[in-house]
Amino acid sequence: MFKPRLLLLTILLTLAGHAAFGQASQPMFSSNQPISISGFLRYANGSPANEVVVRLERFSGGFVTDVRTDRLGKFRFVGLQPIQYHLVIHYPGYLDIEREVSLIMVPSENLQLALIPDRFAVGNKPPPASSKFVLDASVPADARKEFEKADAILAAQKKER
């Protein structure tokens, strides 16, 4: 009596293990959904980045394809495999954008990306460190005014010495 139950339990556990392994090797979504990566590419000021090449590579290495953004900054890759990808955007005068995108567990990914100017790109000279004409636009105006007041007080104190 004991041996048939043990044998039956062993068979059931073996079959359950095979079923679980078979499900884990397949994507977690139905095969009728198109596998895709889409997104919007904008400049730092919010305007659409038109005609910028967006390159798609396999995470394990190798070129897949590339597309150009449209007039609204949109791009889309369709008909992809459920694997990991490496997305690369190189545009002269701007910092490179690199993103890892995994389509193993989801059928699609939507990205919102921004091109940030590279202040030190060829043709863009870095400003001198002591230049009074350098303005960091990310600093709020009130904070900049307070800094200028403090800087003026320090300069006056140095003159008094």
Structural class: alpha+beta
What Rg is obtained from the alpha carbons, in whole angstroms? Answer: 28 Å
The helicity comes to 25-40%
Major sheet summary line: 4 strands, antiparallel
Q: Which whole number gives the mean pLDDT?
A: 80
Strand order of the largest sheet: 3-2-5-6
Low-confidence stretches: none
Order of helices and strands: HEEEEEEEH
Keywords:
7 strands, four-stranded antiparallel β-sheet, alpha+beta, 27% helix, single chain
What does this structure look like?
- The strands form 2 sheets. A 4-stranded antiparallel sheet has the order 3-2-5-6, with no helix packed on it. Strands 4-1-7 form a 3-stranded mixed sheet, with no helix packed on it.
- It contains 2 helices and 7 strands.
- It has helices at residues 2-24, 141-160, and strands at residues 36-43, 53-58, 63-68, 74-78, 84-89, 97-102, 108-115.
- The N and C termini lie far apart (103 Å).
Brief digest:
With 161 residues, the protein is an alpha+beta fold. It has helices at 2-24, 141-160; strands at 36-43, 53-58, 63-68, 74-78, 84-89, 97-102, 108-115.
What's the layout of helices and strands?
Blueprint (H helix, E strand, L loop, with lengths): L1 H23 L11 E8 L9 E6 L4 E6 L5 E5 L5 E6 L7 E6 L5 E8 L25 H20 L1
Parallel strand pairs: 1-7
Antiparallel strand pairs: 1-4, 2-3, 2-5, 5-6
